[in-house]
Design goal:
heterodimer; A: 500 residues; alpha+beta; 8-stranded antiparallel beta sheet; 4-stranded parallel beta sheet; 15 helices; globular; B: 512 residues; mainly alpha; two-stranded antiparallel ribbon; two-stranded antiparallel sheet; 24 helices
């Protein structure tokens, strides 16, 4: 009936006006919650950034409570069936400091708008530099999410990771026993230099003729890495006991780690490769980690041989290094998708051996996270996507090489680009700014819940299956990733989006 | 000729083939050795030895060998038929093949003369040593291949097939609806969907297809070591973990010491002599497999297999039933003198552009070069050779092309007509897929599923069916294109296709 519509329209207009006033006078961030209203009125999307920051679209018939000065914010009517504590948002203001795939993914997400410069944001995908400078000075509302943990470097800097792993292993040995501790033997013998120089020399002398690899702790993409067999090659890192504490801090030598080089890597037709696997952590205490099904194997473009340790191109498989190799052919494609590798290994070694291998990799992910669980500052605003680098040796044993907090999202090919888009989209699906998940899911798109304060199994644990001992882990690395089908079943559509 | 005579002829032929083979001597030795065993009694010697051979698995091996012979040998059509008829019964096809071969050989010879590279030469000792050291990494070699060009590409071969005509068949009077819209204009009897449904009944929509799940246990088929059972099993797809063994079993390809020795001999041949075709192989691998995301890792394997393949005179045997004839080369100055003739290359097969793609998918299954070689060779002499020789065989490329066009014309007439009108004859796009049995066009796991069926049904027909199914799948997009280039673009990327659902839907869900 026309009269009611006119009434509603005028009501809407006045609500908008009052909110606009409130917004402009507000200095602090206001929590504005927009929920999808099932049925009633179609949700209006945030058409542009300025509209959003000035007047959040209101589409509820309920009168709006005052928001002036309040931080708990406006709560519209809830969507039926939602967990009352979760406040989903249909309009998410995001800040993004990086210029690659993540930009495209954020831009295409329905209801997400970019805020520039000093605008208030609900979601921040930042680089570690920004984090270092701003995290401590930022106040974040409850719903706000950011893509790093404050001290993620405990896991991602090579020297700290090793320190944490060694300590974790020692504690396990002391508290539980040798068997349990041996499950942590997945990283090669490593020493931080110059601080552990003497320990390193002891080990070095114990295994004459072995090859070691030197890596700078804070660099990435293969920069500054070299191999050596003689102590004289690393004289610069020799710890000089005469230096004072201050001098140590202002050391001219950069921090490096010396790691035993894996001399028998698994080769495919003479070529060395390593694996890149993606793990998403949404909480450290309790530990909740997701494993992505896709990943890839990066091949070195030259054949492996121990005789030429100066050939950086052969020993390092990072794509960034490969791109500069003289015979690098961009058409050639130095990567295999994880599914391809898994199929290849299954055809060569059979299903059982490959399953054991992938279970051992799960072990690496979980234990590495557990080793920093007590050290990382757990913050409910934080989540983090890690890129794990794994190397296989000829016995199909996986070794942890390092963990990256800012895995390169720069794609090397169209196929690669699509995979990274899927990865990032699913990351945002798990973080769930829109509040579409119940929190009980074991799978979201290409992510499988690997650890939820305890192992997660494929089978549902209930009274009937309780006594059974054959549980399989809920991980599917390298398996079919039919994420679109799964997402359609799992999620309600974005507000305003038609169900396809 | 009655069945009885036919059977005894076949038996006699097989006995002749197996006599003196390695298997024969092994069985003889086993039979002799078992005489020492207590359960063998003099009174019932024959039965006892037979049952011993049965329980020890030797009878199964013999069965597999016989099965293999039955596959590669065509049944004799008539006792008086000349040997050419075994190669190819239709005279006009034989003639066309001979002409084509002449062209290819001419091209090869002129390349040799132009570039001043001999067809074959002995390597100096230094070079031999170098090659031996580099055997496992021949891919690191970067010889100057710019002067070499492939002898021919599938496109050229297609032109020859298009011009094939049966001189006894006058199609000009055919005004009826049976006129053929496609490029191939030979009257071979191709099959239609109801007939295909019967043959490929295991692919029915109601039957589960394997290849996605892996079995935890070793299937009894592999444990039994029975070729025929393995072949039947393969029709519904092989589990990834078992595929390598199953294929080797179906092909009866072994990796015993004699096979390994044979491979080593071939390797020695490669080291000693350098052939002109080696350069063609290098070039082909660099152009195709090395640039493929899936196969670039296997570059070295491909050289190790293909270079040895060129020198394997055992391959010459397959020319008995191949319409092609191996090219002959004459010692300098003695052209025409049959006594100074030698087959060139030694295996009689001149590689063309894309040849290495026959081997590449097998690298996913087999690690050892000698095993890989053995399986590839068997696949070549059973199936692949038919994809680049002119014959009337139901697995031959001519038949496949016609089958493809016929399926398209019968079941997607609108699409075919439209493509024809815009100058995009479907065969021009599908030919390159079929010549390679889709290798390099599908993703590896899908390709292996397709090849499971080639082995399972002992025929390449499924390749033509898949080609038609691909067109059916992308029909909507194809109806909108207005040029050959756009049609090519729509069909450029097949790497996301799932072959089994496509084939199943095309065969069993098409309305007829």
């Amino acid at each position: 009936m026309p009269s009611i519509w006119t009434f509603l329209k005028s009501r809407l207009a006045s609500m908008k006006k009052s909110l606009k006033r409130t917004w402009l006078t507000q200095k602090r961030k206001t929590t504005v919650t927009q929920l999808s209203i099932s049925g009633k009125l179609a949700e209006k999307q945030c058409p542009a950034a300025d509209t959003c920051s000035s007047a959040p679209p209101s589409s509820s018939l309920e009168p709006t409570p005052e928001t002036r000065g309040k931080t708990s914010g406006y709560k519209g009517s809830y969507d039926c069936g939602k967990n009352e504590e979760r406040e989903g948002r249909s309009c998410v203001r995001y800040k993004c400091g990086l210029l690659n795939t993540i930009q495209d993914v954020l831009r295409q997400r329905p209801g997400w708008v970019e805020v520039k410069d000093d605008g208030e944001w609900d979601f921040n995908w930042c680089d570690v530099g920004w984090l270092r400078e701003n995290f401590d000075h930022s106040y974040m509302e409850e719903h706000v999410r950011i893509n790093h943990f404050r001290n993620h470097y405990e896991l991602t800097r090579k020297n700290l990771m090793v320190k944490n792993l060694k300590r974790y292993r020692k504690n396990l040995e002391r508290d539980i026993g040798h068997m349990e501790a041996s499950k942590c033997d997945f990283f090669p013998c490593t020493f931080a230099l110059p601080s552990e120089y003497h320990l390193f020399v002891e080990e070095f002398k114990r295994s004459p003729g072995s090859t070691w690899i030197m890596k700078p702790v804070a660099k990435s993409q293969g920069k500054g890495i070299f191999l050596f067999r003689k102590l004289k090659d690393i004289m610069d890192w020799k710890k000089d006991g005469t230096r004072s504490e201050e001098q140590k801090d202002a050391a001219q030598v950069e921090s490096y780690v010396a790691q035993r080089y894996i001399e028998n890597p698994y080769l495919i037709n003479g070529r060395k490769f390593d694996l890149r696997v993606y793990v998403l952590v949404t909480s450290y205490v309790p530990l909740k980690a997701w494993l992505y099904r896709d990943g890839f194997a990066r091949f070195s473009s030259t054949r492996f041989s121990l005789s030429s340790i100066d050939d950086k191109y052969m020993h390092l498989t990072n794509v960034a290094v490969q791109k500069t190799a003289p015979d690098y052919d961009p058409e050639k494609g130095c990567k295999w998708q994880m599914q391809q590798l898994r199929r290849y290994l299954t055809a060569k070694h059979g299903r059982e051996m490959v399953e054991t291998l992938f279970n051992e990799m799960d072990n690496i992910f979980v234990r590495s996270l557990q080793s920093v669980q007590k050290v990382i500052i757990n913050d409910k605003h934080c989540f983090e996507l890690y890129g794990y680098d794994i190397l296989l040796d000829q016995n199909l044993k996986p070794w942890l090489i390092e963990v990256n907090a800012s895995p390169s999202h720069t794609p090397s090919s169209q196929e690669d680009y699509e995979m990274k888009c899927r990865l990032l989209e699913d990351t945002l699906n798990v973080v769930d700014m829109e509040g579409r998940l119940t929190g009980k899911e074991k799978r979201v798109g290409g992510y499988d819940l690997m650890w939820n304060d305890g192992p997660v199994y494929r089978e549902d644990v209930n009274l009937e299956t309780f006594g059974s001992s054959c549980f399989t882990a809920n991980t599917h690395l390298g398996c079919v990733n039919d994420r679109e089908k799964q997402l359609r079943r799992l999620l309600k559509p974005f507000p305003g989006q038609k169900r396809m | 000729m009655d069945e009885g005579t036919e059977l005894s002829l076949t038996i006699a032929h097989i006995v002749r083939r197996l006599k003196g083979s390695h298997l024969h001597s092994q069985i003889e030795r086993q039979a002799k050795e078992c005489l020492h065993q207590p359960e063998i009694k003099l009174e019932s010697l024959r039965e006892d030895v037979r049952s011993f051979l049965k329980t020890s698995g030797w009878e199964k091996k013999l069965q597999n060998a016989v099965y293999r012979e039955l596959h590669v040998q065509l049944p004799p059509s008539h006792p008086a038929a000349p040997p050419e008829h075994l190669k190819e019964p239709l005279a006009y096809m034989r003639k066309a093949q001979a002409n084509w071969e002449k062209r290819v050989l001419k091209s090869l010879n002129s390349m040799s003369t132009e570039l001043g590279v001999p067809l074959a030469r002995m390597r100096p000792a230094v070079e031999q040593k170098e090659l031996t050291n580099k055997w496992n990494e021949m891919g690191t070699d970067e010889p100057d291949l710019s002067r070499f060009r492939p002898v021919y590409a599938p496109k050229d071969f297609l032109e020859v097939l298009i011009s094939l005509r049966n001189p006894n068949h006058d199609s000009s009077e055919d005004l009826s609806t049976r006129s053929h819209w496609g490029l191939i204009q030979v009257p071979l009897n191709v099959r239609d969907i109801p007939q295909l449904r019967q043959t490929y009944s295991e692919l029915n929509l109601t039957m589960g297809q394997l290849g996605i799940d892996d079995h935890a246990h070793i299937h009894p088929v592999v444990a039994d070591q029975d070729s025929a059972a393995a072949q039947q099993y393969s029709r519904q797809g092989c589990p990834t973990g078992l595929r390598a063994d199953l294929w080797a079993l179906i092909l009866n390809s072994t990796n015993h010491p004699p096979d390994v020795m044979h491979y080593e001999q071939l390797k020695a041949g490669v080291i000693q002599h350098d052939l002109l075709v080696d350069n063609l192989i290098y070039k082909d691998v660099k152009l195709t497999a090395s640039n493929d995301d899936y196969y670039f890792v296997f570059e070295d394997f491909l050289y190790q297999v293909l270079l040895c393949f060129s020198r394997d005179t055992a391959v010459l045997e397959h020319f008995k039933y191949n319409s092609a004839t191996p090219p002959k080369s004459y010692i300098q100055g003695k052209v025409g003198d049959e006594e100074c003739a030698v087959v060139y290359p030694p295996n009689g097969v001149i590689p063309f552009h894309g040849f290495s793609m026959y081997v590449a998918p097998l690298c996913f299954l087999y690690n050892e070069p000698s095993k890989l070689y053995s399986v590839f060779r068997e696949m070549y002499v059973r199936y692949f050779f038919r994809l680049h020789s002119i014959s009337s065989s139901p697995s031959g490329i001519v038949y496949l092309c016609l089958q493809f066009e016929w399926l398209l014309q019968t079941h997607l007439p609108q699409l075919f007509y439209h493509l024809r009108q815009i100058g995009a004859q479907p065969l021009r796009i599908a030919f390159k897929w079929m010549v390679r049995a889709f290798s390099g066009y599908l993703s590896t796991d899908q390709l292996l599923l397709l090849w499971d069926r080639i082995l399972g049904y002992d025929s390449l027909e499924i390749v033509a069916v898949l080609a038609a199914a691909v067109f059916a799948f992308r029909a909507e997009n194809l109806m909108e294109v207005m040029s050959l280039a756009s049609a090519e673009a729509v069909l450029a990327d097949l790497s996301t296709l799932k072959v089994m659902p496509l084939i199943q839907i095309f065969l069993f869900a098409t309305a007829i």
